[in-house]
Design a protein that fits this description.
Number of strands: 19
Order of helices and strands: HHHEEEEEHEHEEEEHEEEHEEEHEHEEH
Largest sheet: 6 strands, mixed
Strand content: 25-35%
Structural class: alpha+beta
Bound molecules: zinc ion
Number of helices: 10
Length: 421
Amino acid sequence: MVQLEKVLREVEGLRDEMVKTLVELIKIPAISPDYGGEGEYDKAQKLLEIIKDWPFDKVEVYNAPDERAKKGVRPNILAYYYGEKGEESERLWILTHLDVVPPGDLSKWTVTEPFKPLVKDGKVYGRGSEDNGQSLVASLYAVKAMMNLGIRPKKTVILAFVSDEETGSKYGIEWLMREHPELFREDDLVLVPDGGNEDGTFIEVAEKGILWFKLRVRGQQVHASMPDKGLNAHRVALDLAYNLDKRLHEKYSERDELFEPAESTFEPTMGGNPADSPNIIPGEHEVVFDCRVLPRYSLDDILKDIEGIVEEVKERHRKELDGKVLPEIEVEILQRADPAPPTDPKGEIVKLLKEAIKELRGKEAKVGGIGGGTFAAFFRRKGIPAVVWATLDEMAHQPNEYAKIDNMVEDAKVMAYLALR
Ligand SMILES: [Zn+2]
């Protein structure tokens, strides 16, 4: 008890240093080569320099090769601070990502430029400030506070700073788990502070599967006054989108109240055709769907149904033109992340986190699932319980992104609590 009080006070005292560190890190853009950036090398170097004299028991760098990135690598850093039983201690991972998304429309950055951080009104502005800088720094100083006091936590804390979260984790956690499975244990506890709500009362234990797909319909372009001479790809695409929308919703309609929304979603999002005049019947048309699927369903089944509906629509509009059977319909998968089994809502990491939020903030946390997209799923697939939690104003990926300094400091206290208990 006394120990916890001391650590919490120490974290509070580190507030200014935390802000300084966050500012230093924001200055270095760590944008994935997929977005035309250099990757995370410089930022990783900066981070290693910051912690150079900190008494971590072990700091390891695992470089995923990627020739497009600076120095040909995507770095992943693991920093260990052992618990009171040394290497025998139970282990708590706190996993954050080094990379950031591009700034987007620069004219919308009205407070400061994306990589010129500004501290104002209790907030730190800049790209990557909240996503994921705030939590990265919080995790660092949760440990620093214990180090300053010479206190060993109950659990070994493993701070992981990984690359490539924003563009799929192929050079980050996915690579690390595949190439270095020995680093992970089934009884590890994992916190991914990369999602959450404004008052830190939402603990995410489950994610839906994600499927993005594009349908490319090919018909035959013709003047709109002579529809019979061609095949209207737009009409075929409307029929297809309507049927997919209706029938996927009907078939995969079960609800799970753990999630918000409780049902799977199938949304037509993008689409269009190159026709640029009202009197042109387009010869091609695209439709894109974003699907978020409850873990009880398999994406393979859904893809099979999509193909079935595609065949049916092709048959309905079938026409031979110049010896060619139309329409042609191609299905392209843009993104696929199969759902992982949920983390037990009654498991240890959830219980501990709830306790911390209750004790430190006097609030009841709610456990739930989201529409998918964090790297907790990689742990869950391996049977390692992982939760996603942080206190966030949800500024991620937005112009004028900021991190609230109070959130950073208060989350560091919760992280310290998890390590000490
Ligand atoms: Zn993030």
